[in-house]
Amino acid sequence: QVQLVESGGGLVQAGGSLRLSCAASGRTISNYAMGWFRQAPGKEREFVGGIGWSGGSIYYADSVKGRFTISRDNAKNTVYLQMDSLKPEDTAVYYCAAGRPIWISRQSLSTSNTYTYWGQGTQVTVSS
Length: 128
Fold this sequence. Notes:
The chain is mainly β and 128 residues long. The chain has one helix spanning 106-109; strands at residues 3-7, 10-13, 18-25, 33-39, 46-51, 58-60, 68-73, 78-83, 92-99, 115-118, 122-127. Strands 2, 4, 5, 6, 9, 10 and 11 form a 7-stranded mixed sheet that branches. The chain has a 4-stranded antiparallel sheet with strand order 1-3-8-7, with no helix packed on it. Strand 5 (46-51) and strand 6 form a beta hairpin. The chain is globular, with a radius of gyration of 13 Å.
């Protein structure tokens, strides 16, 4: 079992930055792919970005590419999502997830079914 706890959410003005953390416990995540997803009120959960177990493969949704950066520190069993140039449309609950796909690809990392473990989410609100 892997337990995931997100933190770092909050209220920020448009153009600002936040850094989300996802701390894992129970098992090392060094052999897990990690993903970030978000869900806005009234909308379906959507892929934000994913990172392979070594950190060598990283994929982003087009809506956040160039503004968000995913990184991982396997020694700390933690994954991060640095969010810059935030927009009001980035407002959502952000979730991290861990999974072990057969292969690492944009398709596998962007698919919810890839992930076995999910955190409880952290709210990000961007004001205009």
